[in-house]
Amino acid sequence: MRRLLAALTTAVIAAALAAGTAFGIVALLEAPPEQPNVPLITYETAAPR
Fold this sequence. Notes:
mainly alpha
């Protein structure tokens, strides 16, 4: 009985860690980038006269 309880506790802890890691990865992937996406080269829309 004691081994069954230890195995069940280990499985529950492992599942909680896996779920927490999954939520953490999703949160990191949805975070906005640190640097804004600004183009290095810009072109004028109007033709010079």
